[in-house]
Design brief:
Elements (H helix, E strand, L loop, with lengths): L1 H22 L6 H27 L4 H21 L2 H18 L7 H22 L9 H13 L5 H13 L14 H4 L17 H10 L7 H10 L6 H9 L2 H11 L13 H8 L1 H15 L6 H23 L6 H10 L4 H7 L3 H10 L4 H8 L4 H11 L4 H9 L15 H17 L12 H11 L3 H11 L7
Amino acid sequence: MAIAFCGRVLQQKGIMNNFQKLTQPIIADEQALNEFANELVDRVDDIERDIAQLSKGPESRALIDNIFRALHNIKGDAAICRVHLAELIAHPLESILTRVRSGEVHYSKTLAEVVLLSLVRMEASVKAMVARKPISQLNLPQLVELLEKMSKAGKADMESNAVQLLKTMSGIQPQNNPQPSANTSAIQSSGNRSPNSNPTNLDLTSEEIDQVFKNIDIPTCPAIVSMAMAEAQRDEPDIRKLVTAIEKDVGITALIIKLANSPLFRTNHPISRVSDALARLGIRNVVCVIAAAALRSSMSGVDAKWLEKFWSHASLVATAAGMIARKQYGIAPDAAYTFALFHDSAIPLLCKRYNNYIDVMNMAMRDNMPLIDAENKFFPCTHAIAGSLLVRNWGLPTIIGQSIRFHHEKDVYHLPETSLPGSAVSLIAVTQLAERLLAHPNENINFEVSDMHYQQALSHLGISEAELDEIRELLVDQESIV
């Protein structure tokens, strides 16, 4: 019994030790760390190139061997340079590839996405170490835990474990494992839940869904959005088909070109053609712009001047959030842009439904009350709940709906990873920072983001006062160029 107890104690100490290495790494040798970081870039490039080659043809033993050797070398380099977090990530990846090489498990597109996601997190964490930046937002302990689980999974369970890892770490369902249709997923996922289900569960409760549908007219997803999303999910999207569809709508065309020339994506060469904008932005960003434009067009019955002001501000916040994300490690600027653009998307729907909604907004602004508190006091549902259901029914990435659902929760920065992925919390943090920095100093700065959430966002992102000043400078005069 004593031996077993000592074994458990040692195991627990090992787990805690690894947790510290993955959340608060110590730089044992700065020169060795820099050398490892430089070498890692080349090795990851080699792996990405081999994975791209594998996607074009049948499974190649030589390419899989190359990937295995590269991972083995990364692990060895990490051990020598004492970059322990990289060693902890590389070890289970190497074990998984060992099983692929032996033929015990099959190579798949999902498995390849796991390798790439893991390497992206590894690169981001090493870059953050070099820059003396925090890495808590990368959620490395859970990544390693899920990789270890994959490395030990039975052959039949390997794919499902890979899907679980991708969904947990990114909030996005892999493309070759589609979710239920956009029109039914929200209802089916909550059909067996009681109204008193755990409020930190990511699914909307049946009561919340009922309140939305009874009180808010959720617009149906337009054909152009469905078509764009279908093309984006294809292995080889038909770019010409997408360009032709976009060019038929002057409003969508203008928004896409405007975004491509915005500070978030601007280079020294302004563009004026949809095809060039598509190449610069990427299909995922274009789909989100199409959805935003379609959503904007669907909101008839709302004062046009007010609506124009609302979407101009949303565009400004989205661009600012993307620019802030670009200065962080492990937060994709395009994902930050998309979430920020849609996080308040249900506000016009509430404005359309309730004649006194703008009066309530003005009252909240005047009385220094957060908007979400005013909504809870005067209306049967909030823009966070309605917005989450809206983007889910329109088929936007799951993580966007999750982030919208919880972006006003008081304990959003303290929810466990199993309740809200850290990647979603990071999207919320950059958006709340953008909202707060863009708030007019003479107005209620707590209207969208409370003092508490603002401070928690700064802490989550690990932003210093000097970096905050840099961000403020980035946002100066943005309203005139976004």
